[in-house]
Amino acid sequence: MIYFSTATQGRARISGPLADAVQTLLDRDGARLIVDGRFGPASARAMNDWQARNGFPSSPTFSEDQWQRLSALGPLTAFDRVLNPTVAFEGTYFTGVVGAFDSGGLTWGILGFTLSSGALQELFSDIETRAPGLIAGIFGAEYGQLMQALPLRGQAAVDWAKTISTGADNTQLVAPWAGYFSALGGRGAAKAVQMDHAFATWFGRAVGYIDRYMPGRQVSLLDIAFWFDVAVQTGVSSAVSTDLLAVDMTGLDNAACRAAFAQVIANHAAAQWRNDVLSRKMTFATGRGTVHGAVYDLADWGITDDVVPAPDTETRPVLSTMFSAC
What we know:
- Helix content is 53%, strand content 9%.
- It has helices at residues 17-31, 41-53, 64-71, 78-90, 119-130, 134-139, 143-149, 154-162, 177-185, 188-213, 221-233, 238-245, 254-267, 274-286, 318-324; strands at residues 2-5, 61-63, 97-98, 107-108, 113-114, 165-166, 172-173, 219-220, 288-291, 294-297, 307-308.
- The strands form five sheets. It has a three-stranded antiparallel β-sheet. Strands 1-2 form a two-stranded antiparallel ribbon.
- The longest helix has 26 residues, at 188-213.
- It is globular and about 60 Å long.
- The protein starts with a strand and ends with a helix.
- The mean pLDDT is 97.
């Protein structure tokens, strides 16, 4: 089974938690990589060197058996795999942070965990439990202010976030705050917590959507990835649900169903976001598309329309286990 390919000339390269994990393991094996979750030429060369040293053909593809050899862990879960393109679309990866440009206040991590919603407080509490003292060690003199800010909600969270935000529309953080969030996001415990919270928060919703809107059908990673991206980007309101249930799926294969669902979801999006929502959803519907100016072929990411077992919402992501050990 192919997990990803690096033969992506003219298309977006694999990125996200899987790329981060493979970079981390190759670096530990002596490759001396910058681990940033973006699998560029240096990472591809390191992968080819590792393949040659471990009895695999030097190839642009990274497979399940290579993953198991490199990591000494079992096969990746469906969540481990479908998470990656959505993380790429969101654009913050493990370390990125965005300032008070919207009602979220601060937004941090692989799927945009926000201060005003309480998600950041939950993440930081879990990180402290797993790695006591890590947050204080990184934030130093600003640790006390951070602890006072984490319980803030709504407008109070936005108002505080503005005090450390800068740049056009407050999208950036002033020094040293941006560096602190980046440093924390680069630590294994923080990566594992982000993975676990993304799994608990959004993957169960995605599986629920599959059961509700594609009942009785065999599913592929493209189906799972489609509904996971829906869960993260827009969710399904009662009005959207009504229109999704009204789609006549008679005679439609899964790809055609996804395309019909994509149009329904985009039609309900706010006008300023409608094209972005449609481009993302149609990329999952067809397996190919352009999102934020980059061309994607999800087969490069190991995500195809081949039938897979029903998604499991109980088994912890394998990548979480790997990051926990880092």
